[in-house]
Amino acid sequence: MEAIMPRLEEGMEQHRIGGSNFTFQGTRIDRLGATEYTLVTIAIDVTGSTSNFADELREALIAAVRSCKKSPRADYLMIRVILFSSSIGVREIHGFKELADIDPNAYAAFKPDGFTPLYDAAYSGIGAMVDYGAHLMENDYLTNGIIFIITDGGDNDSKTASPAMIRQKLEEVKLEEKLESLVSILIGVNARQAKSLLEDFQREAGIGKYIDLEDASEGSLAKLAEFVSRSVSSQSQAVGTGGPSQNISAVI
After folding, report:
1. pLDDT greater than 90 at residue 7
2. With 189 labelled, which of 82, 102, 122, 150 sits at a CA distance of 20 to 30 A?
3. Which residue range is the domain that position 77 belongs to?
4. What percent of the chain has pLDDT over 70?
């Protein structure tokens, strides 16, 4: 399954994730205004089973990006947002853009449908961060990253990726120093029945943490937005240290 790409925006360039047909967009080097960046990816499940809380998921995304805009580190953040389901594949809402160029109010309403290509989404999310991070590092930018993969169930529709492929991409960060560090967090929302599947996936793929958000109430998803913004801020403060933030919570 290839990521569905939006029209190439001004100031952006298209990249292909090495060893796959997945593509993504990132801001051109000559458009960047800082000397160091934390890359942030937010991947959100919009399958049919999220229908009852899709609006709340969108509001959590908007709140998280708004909060990042208020961070003292806002000028050093770039965010990519992707949605995934079998009906849309892995769809990039926008590639890696500086916060000043992102209008969170422009995120369209989610339209939940279909099954869960979780492996494909995780691979697109992690692979794009690793490859774009390497591109920045090669051009003398200090760069680290953090990814949030938000789902309510296990994989049942991936066409390309596997947990082993995801683990290999994550290992490139350490073995080939393509980023200073990459924090990866899998978040289960209202996923009690799939908890063991998601925990197994987290271990097999080498994802750093699995966090279970028991329900999808408005209050819980507001806490999710706060968790995302706090974690982004912590990881951004760690850029230049050579390691990941030690202050990211294991719970929401």
Report:
1. no
2. 102
3. 40-238
4. 98
